[in-house]
Design a protein that fits this description.
alpha+beta; 3 helices; about 160 residues; single chain; seven-stranded mixed sheet
Amino acid sequence: MNVKALAIPSALLAITLIASAQNADKAQIKKQYAKLAVAMKAKDIATIEAMETKDYSEEAMGKTMARKESDEKMKQEFAAVKSIKSLDIEVLDLKIYGKTAIATSKYTMVATIAGGDGKMHTLKAQGKTTDNLVKANGGWLFKHEKDSGYKATLDGKTVKMHA
C-alpha cells in the first residue's frame, strides 16, 4: 500500500472538514448578531444578557466596564428609549480560532428617546465594534466588545460623546 497516496486524500478531507466547521461557526455567529439586533430593538435585556459570558466586558470611549456595570448602563439607556425604529448590524470581518472568534461589525440605529426637556427626540447612531466571542455549550457568546467610531445625532444635531 502506498502511504503517500493515502496521505493526500486524508489531508484534503481534513481541510474540507475544517473549512466546513468554520463555515458552520461563521453562520452561527452571524445568527447571534441577528438575534442581538432583534433583542436590542425589543429592548429584551434578558436575551442580551444570556448572550454574554459571565466575565463579559465592554470598552467604549476609553472606559472599560465589567459585565455588571455594562448591563446596568444598558438598562439605563433602554429606560430612556421609547422605541427603536431601526437597528442594523453588519458583520464586516470574522476570524475564527477554534473556540474563539474576533468579529468586526458596524451598526446603525434610529430611535425615539425621551429628553431631559420632557419631549421626544430622534437619535441616530452609528459605529463599529470589535467583539471577542467564545464557543460554549455549542453556541457562541460575547466575551468582550470594543466600540469605536461612535457617532450620533439628536434631532439632526451632532451629539458629543465623552466617557
